[in-house]
Amino acid sequence: MKTLIAAALAATVLAAPALSFAQESQPLTRAQVRAELVQLEQAGYRPGVSSPYYPADMQAAQAKVAQQNATAEATAYGASTNGSTQAGSRVTPSKSVYFGQ
User: Is 82 inside a domain boundary?
Assistant: First the structure.
């Protein structure tokens, strides 16, 4: 009986690290990574050029892409452009819905 409990405990301990990876988000696809690289290149980042300012160049390009994406989301169809919502006036019917029945 003790060996059965010890075996179950050992299996649980060994399976715990494998189960912890199940909570991670889905990995990026090749197309998603390529699209991000294209966005960074359009923002001015050059991955093949050796630069002494590498981290700053990369962070500046990422900030520019994030700003462009935020602007694109804010001006999307149906989105409020000034941060507020607009609503029309309430229409009250002059007659009952059941009028004439």
Answer: no
45 located within any domain: yes
CA atoms within 13 A on the CB side of 49: 11
| Domain of residue 63, residue span | 28-74
Q: Is residue 44 part of a domain?
A: yes
| Contact indicator for 53, 59 with CB cutoff of 8 Å | no
- Tens digit of pLDDT per residue, the chain (101 long)? 767 676 555 556 555 555 555 556 788 899 999 999 999 999 988 888 888 888 888 899 999 999 988 887 777 666 555 555 555 556 555 666 676 66
| pTM, two decimal places | 0.48
Q: Does any domain span residue 36?
A: yes
